[in-house]
Amino acid sequence: MREEQDEEYNQSLIADQAKELQKMNSEEFENRRRKAIDERRA
Q: The whole model's pTM is what?
């Protein structure tokens, strides 16, 4: 029972980390996109 809970916790942790990484990547992409647009306007 304890092992099963540990496994579920680890999977949840991995999912949270993946979600956070994806968020950071999309924010970085958006920042680069905006910068490129701004540079084209200049």
A: 0.69
